[in-house]
Task: structure prediction
Amino acid sequence: MIRRGVLFDGTDKILYNKKMNYYEENAGFSKTASQIAAYEAQVQSCRDCPLALTRTQAVCGNRCYQGDIMLLGEAPGAAEDRFGRPFAGAAGKLLQQFLAESQIPAERLYIGNAVKCRPVKPGKRPGAWRNRPPRPAEIAACRRHLQAELALVRPKLIVTLGAVPSSCFMPDKPQMGQCHGKPFAAGPYRIFPLYHPAAVMYNPGLRRAYEEDMQTLVRYIQNEMI
Ligand code: SF4
Result:
């Protein structure tokens, strides 16, 4: 059976092509299809916070569980909620464009969100909803899924996109203007904060810093042999 981004041998074990063997040897990789299925089922059936009431569906990562670099966004938006994929909207296009320029192979990138359901607020028209940032209680409620995801992926590097995912690894509220583009250690994790692509879209003045941070990130990955 072939699923997007992952190959299964029909029993319970994930198979790899030669390129993936490299990551298995270097990341202590030991996840099975049943572990992945259990994680995704837990997220999709979760009702631990009020976002379950307004979501179309909970959104897991991009299913690239063999990736050794995790890109962690904030929460699903309208497109992600609709299609069930992270970074499916306009910000995702900008992110993909930068990643293509960075030449980081796509199979190395696990892409997900700190919060798995779309946070909304009432829109101008009756019955319409708009995106909003997740609240601290929602981030806290969803933390157990993020921890399960981290245990499953075991990334060598976590690239946090914006303040919300960065806050999951910092004791104090992160100021993106100060922490962007600078790697730091948080427990067993290596974190590299970037501005969220949506922030760059709405504030073109951040674009230059974002591009420079991407170049710093690529150099960091090369120099640290991640
Ligand atoms: S946001 Fe997270 S904690 Fe809240 S319902 Fe969705 S999966 Fe559960």
